[in-house]
């Protein structure tokens, strides 16, 4: 549980044990980028990290940065994405709190990618065109969201915007964090580890001017002449905050994160009067793909009805499963496309196989006639390449008419849904912490997963929407806290 | 304040004073449509209304029904709208809780329009092409939402979907309610007035089987053999619920509704375990148009920055104003487009006129250089017919370079923002009340403004998204409660 004390008054701090210009709390991707930019803008920076080294949850992530608008990789692979197409997609799908911030992110996305490469992050000029949750090779570019999904594909030319660092597997993120951490070290940015910020300090004028830090056997106070940047991760691991904000997550849901994602960053910001946003947003995931052929199956609820286009991004599908009656859902396949879902953590179990759809309907305890009706309608339309109900793309449509049939249980309480929370502190385009009425709190910033994500709803999330905006707004906050303009 | 008691057990009701099949609480548009369909499906219906007659807030509204997909009026006026285009627009802009329900609404929208006409609602084959909040004539078809606004205009062919009954002014809604109330009377549907439902009653199995009604000097209990339909309006007038869910509404915000919109319907549903949705959604409105020429102005916040495309639907603009720093905003015009905003309730005051933009910036107490920079950038792009920041349509772009200049204060605390709440009970495609985990509560339905609106966010609302879905889902709930299928 997070150990956060009420905000302190500067007048009560007898001695400042350390002084600097900008304190950065947390050394994941957002904190690292903040620290580098603040340092390069001339500020005296101090990084305070709870773990014994840098990296945070970013180093444990799959290493995908959501970027677009015509990045070097997109261009090399033949995509003519533009900031405008990217902004149209994000504006329509993400319901962002701050459209101006989204516009900045899209406009600056190609140059931000170049900046990341200049820091040493390795990105190949390669592309993966299939459906995957993470990759077991070093390929870079991949579609990671709902760009090709109806109706989003009507808003903007779909372009792949997931930029994966050249590492492999579901924890490839460390390959991107290593060069960022090296840069901090090379440039001599001081960092203290095993150090837990437990309180903010503000002066009489309401400006945040420092922090209280707990270390083994010691409590110290550090003064920040220009600003404090909270980059301390999400509240994934805070059971109390999860129960309060996300009651639909159940006993079999497991947070994706590291122990310090206990909400301390969010609680620190709130202690200074920062508002929160999107606290009820979440990305649960227990993907049915890979293999992609399973997308040709259908997903039904306990009424025997389809409710989500099966070619949705896995986090979108999971959000819909979470909202179904009793949170029950099954993936139905025929013999032609039968395969086991490959994501091992999901634990989708094969219920059984049946010779007829009637038997399957009874075996799954669905209302009499419901699945027969759903499949008859689906198959008839699929034979014509149509899905008038949910608009699954024609490339995934085929009649499920090659019995026998099988069903996988993908219910919320039978599979394991990993989740990432989307909510956090309300911030402006430079990471400024904002009150309910959007007044900035002087001297206080929040970036990365301590701030609310751009998508307020898990149905709009795409892989990379943590590291991409986290690194970008981290940089902006660093410059702003140091007193520099973004465009200088 | 709403007078709602905890749910009662059927075993505690000594005598049922009345018995019927379906009880409909409230006789606005949703309740009327529910009652008509349940009655026509063979149910013995009882309408219980708090006022001394039917009509509800629907009769006080501007009488606009959001319908499309190729209605008779759209066809007559030359628009080839389709259910698919309408669904794409609503899916992308509204973030609906139940996409299947939205699909039904769009698919059935043309036939639902025909049904409304058959009940006697008068709709002309005429169109208003300008920008208005309500009309002082009997014209029918008008664009009432963000269909033409970027990026929504990229999702679907924009089509006007506001269908106004042939009445005039901001309370034209009664012209639509009169024939619906007449039908109820002609068909002999019993209604009791001045009767306040204060509690639901459920049996041992958890099924809602009746209500407790308070009348002047009497308390009676009515049994419903098949179902209870809550159609009792919104929680607009419930100060406590507003303060809890919508803290950004301020002292100068005024609810649009009638006294019985005190949240009783929502609280009744909650007493049976119904979940709520979109409780933080709201449409504030204090439109800058008409006249439309004011859309050629720009709206800036206290940082001197634009934050919303000025051609947004007025409720969307107001939502953005609500979220700006200190909730401050100004409409800036030059001499060429100068006019006073015409909506009298908005009370947008002219701050002053200035000979130079520098003087205006100082006069509005904006940061030095901010407004000059914003207007220089805007004017340069507008001269080329472009608005790269916010994509206001080219038809509304002109350089604001004909001084002197003027500013209207449209701040949240200086103007009067009228508001409609969007939140309410969580329901399924037939109006079934749903628990947090989307299990239906047997025998209980909610429709109209007692249920959550389709758009969960006020930025996506369009005029008519109360009466349109309210009348449609009212009908579905009536049939379902009566035991009939929708498609029979």
What labels describe this entry?
FAD-dep_OxRdtase_2_FAD-bd (chains A, B); Flavocytochrome C3, Chain A, domain 1; 22 strands; elongated; nine-stranded mixed β-sheet; about 500 residues; homodimer
C-alpha termini separation of chain A:
41 Å
Radius of gyration of chain A: 24 Å
Integer average pLDDT of chain A: 95
Total domain modules of chain A: 2
Percent in strands of chain A: 15-25%
Beta-strand segment tally of chain A? 22
Offer a concise description of the structure.
Chain A has 488 residues and is an alpha/beta fold. Chain A contains 14 helices and 22 strands. In chain A, helix 12 packs across helix 13 (370-383).
Write the layout of secondary structure elements.
Two copies of one chain form a homodimer.
Chain A: E1 8-9, E2 18-25, H1 29-40, E3 45-48, H2 56-60, E4 64-66, H3 72-76, H4 83-94, H5 99-107, H6 109-118, E5 127-128, E6 141-142, H7 152-155, E7 162-164, H8 174-186, E8 191-192, E9 196-202, E10 208-215, E11 218-230, H9 239-245, E12 253-255, H10 264-271, E13 276-277, E14 282-285, E15 298-300, H11 314-323, E16 330-334, E17 349-354, H12 357-363, H13 370-383, E18 405-409, E19 417-421, E20 424-425, E21 432-434, E22 440-446, H14 467-481
Parallel strand pairs in A: 1-9, 2-3, 2-11, 3-8, 5-6, 11-22, 12-19
Antiparallel strand pairs in A: 4-7, 6-7, 9-10, 10-11, 13-20, 14-19, 15-16, 16-18, 17-18, 21-22
Description:
Chain A is of the alpha/beta class. In chain A, 27% of the residues lie in helices and 20% in strands. In chain A, the strands form five sheets. In chain A, strands 1, 2, 3, 8, 9, 10, 11, 21 and 22 form a nine-stranded mixed sheet that branches. The two termini of chain A are 41 Å apart. The model of chain A has no long low-confidence stretch (mean pLDDT 95). Chain A binds chain B through residues 84, 87-89, 91-93, 95, 97, 99-100, 103, 150-152, 154-156, 247-248, 305, 307-308, 323-327, 388-390, 434, 436-440, 457, 459, and chain B through 84, 87-89, 91-93, 95, 97, 99-100, 103, 150-152, 154-156, 247-248, 305, 307-308, 323-327, 388-390, 434, 436-440, 457, 459.
């Amino acid at each position: 549980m997070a150990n956060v004390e009420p905000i302190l008054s500067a007048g009560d701090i007898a001695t400042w044990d350390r002084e600097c210009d900008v304190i950065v709390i947390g050394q994941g991707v957002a904190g690292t980028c903040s620290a580098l930019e603040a340092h390069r803008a001339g500020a005296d920076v101090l990084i305070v990290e709870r773990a014994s080294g840098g990296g945070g949850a970013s180093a444990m992530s799959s290493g995908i940065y959501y970027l677009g608008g015509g990045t070097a990789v997109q261009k090399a692979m033949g995509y003519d994405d533009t900031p405008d197409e990217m902004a149209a997609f994000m504006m329509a799908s993400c319901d962002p709190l701050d459209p101006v911030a989204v516009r900045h992110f899209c406009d600056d996305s190609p140059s931000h990618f170049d900046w990341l490469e200049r820091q040493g992050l390795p990105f190949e000029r390669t592309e993966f065109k299939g459906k995957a949750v993470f990759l077991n090779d070093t390929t870079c570019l991949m579609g990671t969201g709902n760009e090709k999904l109806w109706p989003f594909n009507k808003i903007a030319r779909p372009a792949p915007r997931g930029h994966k660092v050249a590492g492999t597997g579901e924890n490839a993120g460390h390959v991107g964090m290593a060069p960022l951490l090296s840069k901090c070290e090379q440039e001599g940015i001081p960092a203290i580890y095993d150090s837990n910020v437990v309180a903010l300090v503000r002066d009489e004028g309401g400006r945040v001017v420092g922090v209280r830090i707990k270390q083994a056997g010691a409590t110290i106070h550090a003064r920040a002449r220009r600003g404090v940047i909270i980059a301390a991760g999400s509240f994934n691991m805070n059971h109390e905050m999860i129960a309060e904000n996300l009651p639909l997550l159940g006993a079999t849901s497991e947070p994706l994160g590291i122990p310090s994602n206990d909400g301390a960053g969010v609680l620190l910001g709130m202690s200074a009067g920062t508002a929160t946003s999107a606290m009820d947003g979440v990305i649960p995931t227990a993907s049915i793909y890979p293999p992609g052929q399973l997308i040709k199956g259908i997903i039904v609820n306990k009424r025997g009805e389809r409710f989500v286009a099966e070619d949705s991004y896995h986090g979108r599908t999971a959000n819909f499963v979470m909202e179904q009656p009793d949170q029950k859902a099954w993936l139905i396949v025929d013999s032609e496309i039968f395969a086991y879902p490959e994501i091992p953590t999901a634990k989708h179990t094969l219920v059984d196989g049946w010779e007829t759809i009637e038997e399957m309907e009874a075996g799954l305890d669905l209302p009499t006639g419901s699945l027969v009706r759903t499949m008859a309608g689906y198959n008839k339309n699929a034979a014509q390449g149509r899905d008038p109900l949910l608009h699954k793309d024609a490339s995934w449509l085929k009649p499920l008419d090659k019995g026998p049939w099988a069903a996988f249980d993908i219910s919320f309480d039978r599979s394991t849904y990993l989740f990432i929370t989307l909510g956090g502190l309300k911030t402006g385009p430079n990471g400024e912490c904002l009150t309910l009425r959007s007044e900035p709190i002087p001297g206080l910033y929040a970036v990365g997963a301590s701030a609310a994500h751009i998508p307020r709803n898990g149905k709009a999330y795409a892989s990379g929407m943590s590291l991409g905006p986290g690194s970008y707004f981290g940089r902006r906050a660093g410059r702003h806290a140091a007193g520099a303009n973004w465009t200088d």
